[in-house]
Automatic annotation (TrEMBL):
Origin: domain of life: Bacteria
Single GO biological process annotation from the record: regulation of DNA-templated transcription
Identification of the protein by name: HTH luxR-type domain-containing protein
Record key words, sorted: DNA-binding, Membrane, Transcription, Transcription regulation, Transmembrane, Transmembrane helix
Organism: Eggerthella sinensis
HTH luxR-type domain ranges (all copies): 410-474
Length: 474
């Protein structure tokens, strides 16, 4: 029995890897080490200058990203991956981390700490841009595997970072992350699978279709920063609640990978955004029950939600970079500068407003921001050509589409399918989900479901796999 279970488990893992087009390796998850550099510098900094350190670090990230955007646009190529930068900047990033973490006269000086914080933020922006060059070369399925794997790896490592302190050991751990991340980047590029799907969907004329998503992410980032500046900082949480945040992140990340594999073409990855909003709203509701345990739990939930915003946004930028002629430095430089800027501005009001801010009023303001963010994202363009993650459900063209149409026409004659049922099944057999079919044919999702159910009854089958088997047998 044990051998059989082991074989089944092995086949399951190989099946998942085959679907995502990746091999079993941790190196493509090196982006997670960059996440850990961000987290550990904020968590272990000896002097956070009463919370201003995070503001300066986020603004430093925004500055470096937008500067790289303009430089890359002018040069027409990536500058973040120049050999000199790859060799020197990780070492400098590690040195800055050590100066921030180890108690010393330098770390006691607010001016020095803020300057080092801005520098660490610039290095963070650079790390994200370097990994962006890797993701630009990936199709959407491998990108999903790598981004979610990076999220899970970073959350697991943060469980150990939670027990570190502002001392020499913590400093060496913090300094190691950028070096290890770049080592993983070198190897991951050698292991990278060849790109199979690449469509120039996004250009100067079509990028406007993503403006709603950009506004939604910016509002959400500002809301997260504002919420986390209201009360307990995440790094001041009792350790059990920090562990809860990381465990929840691991659980949801693994679940998202599993669901993407099980549902395959029926999986609408954009729905991850709504999961993030649900997590954030839950954290806000929990915060309403007061401080203490419930307040700590709400911060933990918001922390997990923030990581999924980062993952979703990073993956969305990867899809844009992969399906456009823009350099990855341009796509990530512009996109990530907006996120980092709004996060930094979200942390700022608590430090600059002199009057005491009402907790209830702030909670309502954050809820309002979340509702607006939801509104923006619900208006994201969903056309076949311009929607995000369209390569999860590639459109058949040419001879393949002609063959499928002929097969379904024969099927319709044999089983007496109506014209509308033929239209639905033609899209359904191409891997389109019910939401897409309803938009394409201007009918409700319930109507699509009814048509599919009627086809199953006429053909005396029970699931999509049986339908595909019959079509392929014609």
């Amino acid at each position: 029995m044990g051998v059989r279970e082991s074989r089944a488990s092995s086949e399951g893992i190989s099946g998942i890897l085959e679907y995502f087009g990746m091999r079993l390796s941790l190196f493509p998850f090196g982006l997670g080490l960059s996440f850990c550099y961000t987290y550990s510098t904020q968590r272990l900094v000896f002097n956070d200058v009463e919370g201003i350190f995070q503001v300066v670090q986020y603004l430093g990230t925004a500055l470096s990203c937008i500067v790289m955007f303009f430089l890359s646009r002018r040069a027409g190529e990536n500058l973040s991956t120049k050999r000199g930068a790859l060799l020197v900047l990780p070492v400098l990033a590690g040195a800055v981390a050590m100066m921030l973490v180890v108690p010393s006269p330098l770390s006691n000086s607010n001016v020095v700490v803020l300057a080092l914080g801005a520098m660490s933020g610039m290095f963070i922006g650079w790390l994200y841009l370097v990994w962006g060059s890797f993701y630009k070369q990936l199709d959407v399925k491998p990108a999903i595997w790598c981004v979610l794997g990076s999220l899970v790896l970073s959350a697991v490592l943060k469980l150990f970072i939670a027990f570190l302190h502002s001392d020499v050991i913590g400093a060496f751990a913090c300094a190691a992350f950028p070096l290890l991340s770049m080592g993983c980047w070198w190897i991951a590029n050698k292991e990278r699978p060849p790109s199979k799907l690449k469509v120039e969907r996004f250009s100067a004329k079509t990028l406007y279709t993503l403006k709603n998503m950009g506004f939604g992410v910016m509002l959400f980032a500002f809301a997260i920063g504002l919420f986390m500046s209201m009360g307990l900082q995440v790094f001041s949480l009792p350790i059990e609640f920090r562990i809860v945040a990381h465990v929840v992140t691991v659980a949801v990340g693994v679940s998202a990978l599993f669901v993407a594999y099980r549902w395959k073409e029926d999986f609408e990855f954009s729905n991850l955004w709504f999961i993030v909003l649900l997590m954030a709203a839950t954290g806000l509701v929990v915060a309403g029950f007061g401080e203490g345990t419930m307040g700590s739990l709400s911060i933990a939930i918001f922390t997990a939600a923030q990581m999924f915003v980062i993952v979703f946004y990073y993956l969305a930028l990867a899809d844009v970079a992969h399906n456009s002629s823009y350099t990855s430095d341009m796509v990530y430089g512009f996109g990530w500068s907006l996120y980092a800027l709004c996060m930094g501005l979200g942390f700022l009001p608590i430090h600059v407003v002199t009057v005491e801010l009402n907790q209830l009023a702030l909670s309502l303001a954050i809820l309002y921001l979340l509702l607006i963010a939801l509104f923006f994202f619900m208006r994201v363009h969903q056309s076949r050509e311009l929607r995000l993650f369209a390569d999860l459900n590639p459109t058949l063209t040419g001879d393949r589409l002609t063959l499928l149409t002929e097969q379904i026409d024969r099927l319709a004659v044999k089983h007496g399918l109506s014209d509308r049922e033929i239209e639905v099944i033609l899209l359904y057999a191409q891997g389109r989900n019910r939401a897409f079919i309803s938009q394409e044919l201007f009918i409700s999702e319930n109507t699509v479901r009814d048509h599919i159910k009627n086809v199953y009854q006429k053909m005396r089958i029970h699931n999509k796999q049986e339908l595909i088997d019959i079509i392929q047998g014609i």
